[in-house]
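tl;dr need the bound structure. longer version: we got a ligand (fe (ii) ion) that a collaborator sent over and nobodys looked at where it sits. i said id run it. heres the input, straight from their email, havent touched it
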Amino acid sequence: MELILRDGRLPNGEAVDIGLEGGVIRAVEPNLKAEAGQEMSLAGQLISPPFVESHIHLDSALTAGQPRWNQSGTLFEGIEIWGDRKQSLTLEDVKERAIATLKLQAQQGVLFVRSHADVSEPSLTALKALLEVRDAVKDWIAVQVVAFPQDGLYGSPKNLELMEEALKLGADAVGGIPHYEMTREDGVQSVHQIFELAQRYDRLIDIHCDEIDDDQSRFLEVVAACAVRSGLGSRVTASHTTAFASYNNAYATKLMGLLGRSNINFIANPLINITLQGRADTYPKRRGVTRVKELWQRGLNVSLGHDCIQDPWYNLGTGNMLDVASMAVHVCQMTGQDEIAACYDMITTNGANTLALGEAYGLDVGKPANLIVLDADSPYEAIRRRATVTHVFSRGKLLVETKPAEVRWR
Ligand code: FE2
């Protein structure tokens, strides 16, 4: 072996040694009887598959305040500000910010990222830049790019053409925003169109779906029905689905049955949902986060995303997935021990399912040696303390090391 990590603890509590060689995990067992060029003692620290950022907008990241700050804090002011900012996008501008953001994520344990790229501006600058970034960083972090029609697939006559161009250029997934289309009919039609494109170009689907407090916004049922009828199932993801939190329970119960049949993935973005939603409410004020706990209890695949890092919609954010999981624990009231563990799964294995990573992800023998070590002994402690990710191994190589903060009482 080139390297043996001794005395680590897996997220399920099992104590193991992990042996790496040639960029691949060669052994995962207690008291590994082997020698290595290098050994590292983890002293019972958590050793985990990397974090998966399943929903981020790298094209708008790190632009907060440009050209102005979002003072109302609403999604719609964010879309207006981004509309102005994107007039001055250049390939270099997007690439620089995207790579800076990916480094921020990687140093905190993220090695798999799904980013949306706005494809509703005529030059497709954001998309072209992110496709170049996907290639430039592929040796240390895996990026998927979703062609996302921010202004609606039918928001202007050119947008559908731009979407198709984006797929021809190599976007990994077809995106959408049905609740933002001009009419309900356009929204329904857009979902059908997205499925047609995904099948024609053999791509995944990830739709911004019902990201609104309107209890009548019901595109999730259209997405689920299309997933059932097309058989695309787990290749389909519904992001946000915040309106689901506002549906009456009679409808929600009926919908849950359909979602169970559909086998689609869900992504909640609790940091963003809790700040953007509920803005039109007085009191009681809604939380605006989808039914994460109920979807998880039903056995559906739910992952969590950061969505925004310092952009027109959210001027905070650090790229730390433990912040995201912690917010989910609070807002979704998932404070039971198994529920906290489930929130950790939502930023690791469930995210990998959403991204359809298959054999590329996990801590099994034979898999690529992507793993992280945390300054905590369990997922519970990691989330509670937002523990430092002390070591990030990408393809068997130590990519980043971070020392936990040291406190000295005088
Ligand atoms: Fe988003």
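gonna send this back to them w/ a short note. The longest strand covers residues 110-118.
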